[in-house]
């Protein structure tokens, strides 16, 4: 399989999150050309800060590999990692990260900061950016558009029925 095919699997994971009302972000970890972990955001369902797709996938991969070191793995994720996830990627020693859409508000793999390639750390990551960027970006754009519409409808309903 190639980067696009693995990213498609991450998109499939993101769609699972969307069905649950979660921000549609999916992650896949590959070791020796085999998918060993998949995950999607569960922050709203679990109400835990650490329930990002990347963190959940890293935890699963650690269990499968039997080590905290994921030195021969590639992480595919639909959205650029945030500072927390970038830190976990460094700590897990993942050597390669492939992501789809840039995160203009929290991206720490090149957009706001590049935590993954800062040579002051003892580990740097090869980055492949923008794989299926249009598809991954549309997932997020459509999700937040629907969320805003729901909020407007709720406000309108409350206003029309004098509910405060």
Protein described:
Helix 1 runs parallel beside helix 5. The protein contains 5 helices and 5 strands; from the N terminus they run αββααβαββα. By secondary structure, it is of the alpha/beta class. Strands 2-1-3-4-5 form a 5-stranded mixed β-sheet. The protein is elongated and about 60 Å long. The model has no long low-confidence stretch (mean pLDDT 94). The chain starts with a helix and ends with a helix.
Provide the succession of SSEs.
Answer: HEEHHEHEEH
Shape: elongated
> Total domains, how many?
1
Distance between the termini: 54 Å
Strand order of the largest sheet: 2-1-3-4-5
Q: What is the total tally of β strands?
A: 5
Low-confidence stretches: none
Please work out how many helical segments DSSP would assign.
5
Approximate helicity band: 40-55%
Active site: 54 (proton donor)
InterPro entries: APOBEC/CMP_deaminase_Zn-bd, CMP_dCMP_dom, Cytidine_deaminase-like, MafB19-deam, tRNA_aden_deaminase
Keywords: Hydrolase, Metal-binding, tRNA processing, Zinc
Cofactor: Zn(2+)
In short:
The protein has one domain (3-162): Cytidine Deaminase, domain 2.
How would you summarize the topology of this molecule?
Blueprint: H1 3-19, E1 26-31, E2 34-40, H2 43-46, H3 53-65, E3 73-79, H4 83-91, E4 96-101, E5 126-128, H5 133-160
Parallel strand pairs: 3-4, 4-5
Antiparallel strand pairs: 1-2, 1-3
